[in-house]
Amino acid sequence: MKALETSLALVEAATEPSDEALCRAFLAGDEAAFGTLVERHRALVFSLMRRYVARPEDAADLAQQAFLRALEASRRVFSRWNLSDPAPFRAWLLRIALNLAKNHARQERRWPRVVEVPETEAPGESAQETLERTERERRVRAAVLALPRRQREVLTLRMDGGLGFREIAGTLGITETNAKVNFHHAVKRLRAQVAELPEEER
Question: Where in the chain is CATH 1.10.10.10?
Fold first, then answer.
């Protein structure tokens, strides 16, 4: 039974249209094709936003803004791509999301909130555990935001976006070697900061 379910899942995955096919369909007038692209990449964009944004509702709002901006520019941008080759939709979308996230982070530093409200408790989680988890996430987010700009961008695209170094290089307009070097230094800096924390907070 499990083998059958696995086979069915593989067949279903194989029949899903590629990003390129969905971009072609959208250009041809299939409005629903863009909705499929949104659903496919929604979790990815939200995950990237959470590196820069303290509150999940703000991350959700920014993710929505990213998709709206992508929609507004889509026909103009898609028409320039060679959609018979792998289209850079994901990298293009993440570049839009990254710019929104960075702008939001700059705004937050200019006008910081007086109090950061903890997130809702997870199932089976006590109020104390929620506070501790929120504080850990805040520390991680602060450590990432403290990285030099390029290191931060490469790290978030690699860790949250799941992009390979070649795709990161194309997204940011840098060389693949430069992307790898920035990622290496970002990880090294974060490890050094974690090592400085009390053992119970690591």
Answer: 127-202
The domain made up of 127-202 has a fold known as Arc Repressor Mutant, subunit A (1.10.10)
| Residues 169, 151 contacting (CB under 8 angstroms) | no
Per-residue pLDDT of the chain (202 residues; tens, 9 = 90+): 444 444 434 334 457 899 989 999 999 999 999 999 999 999 999 988 988 887 889 999 999 999 999 999 999 998 888 777 666 888 899 989 999 998 887 876 654 443 344 455 555 667 777 777 677 777 777 888 888 989 999 998 898 878 889 989 988 889 999 999 999 999 999 888 767 655 555 5
Question: How much is the pTM?
Answer: 0.69
